[in-house]
Design a protein that fits this description.
Blueprint: E1 16-19, H1 23-35, E2 40-43, H2 46-53, E3 60-64, E4 66-67, E5 70-71, H3 72-80, E6 87-92, H4 96-104, E7 109-113, H5 117-140, E8 146-149, E9 152-155, E10 160-162, E11 168-169, H6 173-184, E12 190-191, H7 192-199, H8 209-221, E13 231-234, E14 238-241, E15 246-247
Parallel strand pairs: 1-2, 1-3, 3-6, 6-7
Antiparallel strand pairs: 4-5, 8-9, 8-15, 9-10, 10-11, 12-14, 13-14
Helix pairs in contact: 6-8
Length: 248
């Protein structure tokens, strides 16, 4: 299945794409958002989303997990291979497994149907606020320099992570923010609350999402994520980055 071709960086205002197989749901949510001055495009499946992303880069995607013949989680994986656009998952009977899998592969939030339109709008606006906070922070503190640890190298400019063999490893915004938190405080136990604060401007936070994000980061860094040697669990506290870190 071919991947998504992301369109040019145009019209990146408060434009939301709704991906949902239910025409009544698409119409209801689109009308409500437009009443609150949020431009919306609505599509019914993966093909429609692909056509849309080829010409425009939205600021948020509202993605139904079950799209008939299309699997919303597969769509989420494809988008994450090319883009950090915020994604809110929706779905009926969205159980804990669905939520954890979605968060692990890069969703920013999830909301179970039937949901209230006011709550949905509040979640979307929360994502917009975090985007703006991140933009302001980057403007005030341009990223430069980086870190070396255990043969790895992280370049802050471009968010580029290179493994000991010289291969580049992709990082989502959440992965990058979490890794920075560890590299800024190596060999020091960090509580879940400290890690939540470090990643808050990048992704929405669920009660267990730090554990999910740590697992995802371990899969990027560890030879055996089930027996980690770099990011260790500090029982009763949180996590600790075990390697010596050199900044430059």
């Amino acid at each position: 299945m071919p991947g998504f071709n992301l369109g040019p960086e145009i019209a990146k205002t408060r434009h939301v794409v709704i991906v949902d197989g239910d025409p009544a749901m698409r119409e209801t949510v689109a009308r409500y958002f437009e009443e609150h001055s949020i431009p919306v495009s609505a599509v019914s499946n993966r093909a429609g989303l692909s056509r849309h992303l080829a010409v425009m880069n939205p600021c948020l995607i509202l993605l139904e997990v079950r799209l008939g013949q299309d699997d919303g989680l597969d769509v989420l994986r494809e988008i994450r291979a090319h883009s950090d656009v915020p994604i809110i998952m929706t779905g009926h009977r969205l159980d804990e497994t669905d939520r954890v899998v979605g968060l692990e592969i890069g969703a920013d939030d999830c909301i179970v149907k039937p949901f209230g339109l006011r709550e949905l709008l509040a979640r979307v606006r929360a994502v917009f606020r975090r985007q703006e906070m991140g933009r302001v922070a980057r403007t005030r503190d341009p990223e430069r320099g980086g870190y070396r640890f255990g043969g790895w190298q992280l370049e802050r400019r471009g968010r580029k992570l290179v493994d000991p063999n010289g291969a580049q490893v992709s990082l989502s915004k959440g992965d990058y923010a979490l890794l920075l938190a560890f590299l800024d405080a190596p060999q020091r136990p960090l509580t879940r609350e400290q890690l939540l604060q470090a990643t808050r401007v990048h992704e929405d936070i669920f009660d267990r999402s730090i554990d999910v994000q740590v697992l995802r980061l371990r899969r990027r860094l560890e030879a055996d994520p089930s027996a980690p040697k770099m990011i260790l669990t500090e029982r009763g506290v949180g996590y600790v980055f075990a390697h010596t870190v050199e900044s430059y």
